[in-house]
Write a structure and sequence with these properties.
single chain, alpha/beta, 7-stranded mixed beta sheet, 4 helices, 7 strands, 29% strand
């Protein structure tokens, strides 16, 4: 889904590993694609990546992002995870809530047909999240990258084919 020439948003981008890979894949270093990295934390510069130190939950964040990019995104990806408490159910609810807010942001900034990818953890607490994503996207599935340890509960939810209409942010 990281194709040459597309526009990508990396939510919670620090320290910048995903942004770096996205920039190479979409051709951002040579000016063919665009990558905007959003985080509350400062980040080191990444070649081909525009850095935005802002809170994606802020009311004007979608508008700021669209202005920075000169249009809407084709991909919104999030490797964010909340600080863990050690209580499994609480931690799961917190990450599902974070994914829900990232998905809401994605629906404000994605082009029709766009893709949303977010870190999740394996559990049964995300059924409502998946149902919501299925209303907004043509295809929703869980994926586990080869780089993730087999015994890890880490996985990603991949939603492709955004059904929404391009609309101005509120």
């Amino acid at each position: 889904f990281l194709k040459h020439g597309i526009a990508v948003v990396d939510l919670g981008a620090a320290p910048g590993g995903w942004s770096q890979i996205a920039a190479k894949r979409v051709g951002a270093v040579s000016g063919k694609g665009k990558v905007v990295a959003i985080d509350l934390l400062e980040m080191p510069e990444v070649p081909g990546v525009n850095l935005a130190q802002l809170d994606f939950l802020a009311e004007d964040a979608p508008e700021k992002l669209i202005a920075m990019m000169g249009g809407r995104a084709d991909v919104v990806m999030s490797d964010m995870a909340p600080n863990t408490t050690g209580h499994r159910k609480t931690d799961q609810l917190r990450i599902v809530g974070l994914i829900e807010t990232a998905a809401a942001f994605a629906t404000d900034v994605l082009n029709p047909g766009g893709t949303f990818l977010a870190k999740a953890f394996q559990s049964g607490a995300d059924a409502e999240l998946v149902a919501q994503l299925k209303r907004d996207f043509a295809s929703v599935r869980h994926v586990k990258p080869a780089s993730s340890r087999q015994d890890s509960s880490e996985r990603y939810v991949l939603a492709m084919g955004f059904r929404g209409q391009a609309r101005p942010p509120d």
